[in-house]
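Would you mind writing out the residues of a protein together with its fold in token form for me to study?
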Amino acid sequence: MGPYYRNTSQGMGNFIEMFYEHPILMLFIVTITTGLGAYLWRRKKL
């Protein structure tokens, strides 16, 4: 763990470590978030 995560809780640290071990997860979450945001924004606009 780097110096950036000294102040985080143990659970948050484990969560961040998981992303370092599986970078595809980060891409997956970003894709879902973007898709969901676009869907909700488009629905609200109509």
Notes: Residues 7 and 46 are 43 Å apart (CA to CA).
